[in-house]
Predict the 3D structure of the following.
Amino acid sequence: MKLYSNLYGLSLPFYLDPSVIGMVLNVIAMIIGSALTQVENDEVYAREKLFVLPEEEKDIVEIKRTLTITKYSVLLGIAMVVILLILWVISYLKAL
């Protein structure tokens, strides 16, 4: 719901919509900020540390368990789509 439309009865074109203006200004600010700043060595080092796997997390059994759970979650997602199609969408379309 658009607050300016409800309060003032205005109907603006899409390019003057406050959300569009906000997104455009944010992109411009990011471009300016990226052009005017440089990445420092400390920041590069901190980013590289994010991708180093700690020794306590190199347990093969735990990694296999996590991968198994991931596979089951994908299968569960597919099953939920099929169940929703059968029980909800198809029955709803038949009722029309």
